[in-house]
Amino acid sequence: MAIVLINEFTNMKKSTLLISILFSVGMMTFTLDTLASRPTDINYVAKKVTTFGSEYREYAVRCSDGNAKMITAWEQRTKWCIGLTNQCLANQLEAATTACGG
User: Fold this and answer.
1) Which tens digits make up the pLDDT trace of 84-98?
2) Which of 34, 44, 51, 96 has the least CB density, counted as fewest CB within 10 Å?
3) CA gap 39, 19 in Å, rounded
């Protein structure tokens, strides 16, 4: 009888430890996700033209970490790029999130 109680107590300790570990890992994941900088504000800046005659629009992005980034819209706002790079995405929010590092 005593051996059965000891085994049940040991199994209970293992399951409690496992639950604690899983909870800790979950909280770390949640914390890291919330620490990633996100766009908080996107403002139109100007319409510009390249030396080759291509029109684009410039937008200022304010990030949750306090930094300001620039994104640009090309091809009648169907292509959104991080600054003037070739790193482009399909929509404004994705480009702003990437620019902020999220």
Assistant:
1) 999 999 999 999 999
2) 51
3) 35
